[in-house]
Amino acid sequence: MGSVGxxxxxxxxxxxxxxxxCELLNRCSFKSKVEARLAVFTWIEAWYNLKPRHxxxxxxxxxxxxxxxxxxxx
Length: 74
What we know:
Blueprint: H1 11-25, H2 33-46, H3 62-73
């Protein structure tokens, strides 16, 4: 995410995976890979993308930030 050797190099990615592990993976057990993939997809789309805000994207919801990036590109 940042430059090599930067203290905050992977901070956003580590924050995401810590939330995923704490909110979903530690609370559930899955019978198959398909069930796990569906649960992770649902968690991201239904909870994560709608809740947290981050300073790196001016505290916007991630889904709004993605839409604004797409509008700038096209």
